[in-house]
Inverse folding.
């Protein structure tokens, strides 16, 4: 069977003025697909085998190409939005016909020029389309180990689990909710540290440095926040965790460690209702 959305080796079973027809080796009398004349390698003849990619043309006819697309079935890739239309966005994937990303498969509306991480699927009409739900098509055989620094794209945020990330746009990873720090939203590229490689190969990440390094960063961030409040925060480390998270982006424990570091350095003082910068 000819496989839509994949590269495969097919055999030339018929030549015509406008190209050659290809079939699965051993199934020459069954399904066939056209490779247009402009795509046929010079010197090709009946019985030759060619590696091609199979998709659908602008008239929804199955067609073969020797060009290599930027995305294949079962994989994920970062593609550019060529234009938007009535049914969704159209992505440049290196072939003559742009790839449709339907509205229902988008995670937030995309605009022309955006780069989106997508996978392929076949819709009910047997057409190839793109989806931003890439989880099932991300690999679990990354070369990374705990402590390694990586770069990945956030493709989904879960209130329960955290931020789902595609490291190098291809490896499955999660930043647990407890490890989220600062802003993280779908479509954002983040730098992170590998905390753990799970048994199934998926990565657990943190966008925070190791504690002793992060404490210094948090302390500096707290000083900047104090300056923005003209030298005095209207709450202390006894405030509710929700207040501290909202105002500083830190957990209560992180905030308390930063306060402790600055107290030890003599750079702040604490009153019953505020934290004040000294000097």
């Amino acid at each position: 069977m000819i496989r839509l959305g994949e590269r495969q080796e097919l055999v030339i079973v018929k030549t015509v003025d406008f190209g050659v027809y290809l079939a699965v080796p051993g199934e020459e009398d069954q399904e066939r697909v056209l490779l247009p004349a402009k795509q046929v390698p010079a010197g090709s003849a009946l019985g030759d085998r060619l590696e091609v990619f199979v998709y659908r043309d602008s008239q929804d006819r199955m067609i073969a190409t020797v060009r290599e697309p930027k995305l294949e079935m079962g994989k994920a890739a970062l593609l550019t939005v060529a234009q938007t239309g009535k049914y969704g966005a159209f992505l440049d994937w290196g072939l003559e016909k742009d790839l449709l990303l339907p509205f229902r498969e988008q995670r937030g509306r995309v605009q022309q020029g955006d780069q989106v991480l997508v996978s392929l699927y076949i819709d009910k009409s047997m057409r190839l389309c793109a989806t931003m739900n890439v989880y099932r098509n991300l690999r679990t055989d990354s070369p990374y180990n705990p402590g390694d620094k990586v770069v990945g794209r956030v493709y989904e945020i879960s209130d329960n689990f955290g931020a789902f990330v595609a490291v190098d746009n291809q490896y499955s990873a999660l930043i647990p909710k407890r490890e989220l720090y600062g802003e993280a939203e779908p479509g954002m590229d983040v730098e992170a540290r590998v905390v753990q490689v799970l048994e199934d190969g998926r990565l657990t990440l943190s966008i925070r440095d190791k504690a002793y390094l992060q404490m210094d960063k948090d302390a500096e961030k707290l000083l900047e926040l104090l300056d923005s409040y003209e030298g005095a925060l209207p709450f202390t480390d006894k405030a509710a965790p929700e207040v501290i998270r909202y105002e500083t982006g830190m957990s209560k424990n992180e905030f308390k460690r930063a306060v402790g570091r600055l107290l030890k350095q003599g750079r702040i003082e604490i009153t019953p209702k505020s934290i004040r910068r000294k000097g």
Observations:
- The CA atoms of residues 255 and 267 lie 15 Å apart.
